[in-house]
Amino acid sequence: KTWLDTMRQEGIQPNVVTYNTLIYQAPDYDTAKTWLDTMRQEGIQPNVVTFNTLIYQAPDYDTAKTRFDTMRQEGIQPNIRTYVSLITKSPDYDTAKALMDEMQQEGIQPTVGTYNRVISQAPDYDTAKRVVETMHQKDIKPNVKTYKMLFGKNLSEKTAEEILSWYSAQAYNSEIPIKIAIRSYININRIDQALRLILDYPHLDIARQVIREHDEEALSYFKGIYEKDQRHSNASYALGVALLELGREKESQRYLREALKLTTHEPRKVLIERWLCQIDQKISSS
Q: With contact defined as beta carbons under 8 Å apart, do 33 and 46 qualify?
């Protein structure tokens, strides 16, 4: 605002870029709208950047949609940023999905960020998963945020086995979304399903927290699997981690050593070797 006053004093006329900057810097939507009115009064026509900023600044979807309709009436073509802002403000999944369909009809291709915003609006896991599968069909690679939002949905109707089977087949296999899935099961009191995920990922911070808070259930679950199949690398690994987490280092050695022999996963080998070294040092110094 100060620089605008300086410009005017020096006889420099503001243009659309000047006003777009002022609108972007405006502290609230009403102030931004006032700058739009001012630029119109001075005969400066807003462009797509002007409207995109106003839509972004809008306090709610209805206000943003009104601005969107106005820009169309004025013959200004929306772009991906326009639609992303509208989708973000959408009141529900159906509205967000319809907007994404509309932008594709206009030849504007959604990005992974666009799909992520639609997934965030999805009312349930199955709906969100269908969006992820659409991404695959469109050759758009999901990212960690995609899977985090998917596994953050209500998983009460899904088993951990089903989720692991599907997720392991994905090209993207970060452990971060698994943390979200574990937390989702804990939130709905499905400890059994959380433990199934922890069986494969006992080293995660959330997994170790669950082991501490549900120690008897965790040890019983892991031991049951181990007793059925002592060659089960995840069972010996999970048992070793659980016992280590519970302060039972000497007992954990046996299972960690077995897990070390069975695993072919190099990062797991390095982690187990470090734990075993720490245990040896602790025992020898005591």
A: no
The residue to which tokens 């899977």 are assigned: 147
- Reported as a single tens digit per residue, the pLDDT across 10-25 is 999 999 999 999 999 9
Q: pTM of this prediction?
A: 0.88
CB count within 10 Å of CB 19 equals 24
Are residues 141 and 112 in contact, defined by beta-carbon separation less than 8 angstroms?
Answer: yes
DSSP state of 87: H
- CA pseudo-torsion sign 38, 39, 43, 48: negative
Residue type, 221: Y
Q: How far is CA 90 from CA 60, 65, 97, in A?
A: 8, 9, 9
How far CA 27 is from CA of 4, 21, 24, 34, 107, in Å, comes to: 16, 12, 8, 12, 34
pLDDT tens-digit readout, 228-273: 998 887 999 999 999 999 999 999 999 999 999 999 989 999 999 9
Please, are residues 120 and 104 in contact by the beta-carbon 8 Å criterion?
no
DSSP-assigned letters across all residues of 19-47: HHHHHHH-SSHHHHHHHHHHHHHTTPPP-
What lies within 8 Å, CB to CB, of 24 at 6+ separation is 53
Q: What is the largest CA-CA distance in the chain?
A: 86
What is the tens place of the pLDDT at every residue in 156-215? 999 999 999 999 999 877 999 999 999 999 999 999 999 999 999 999 999 999 999 999
Can you state the percent helix, strand and coil of the chain, rounding each to 5? 75, 0, 25
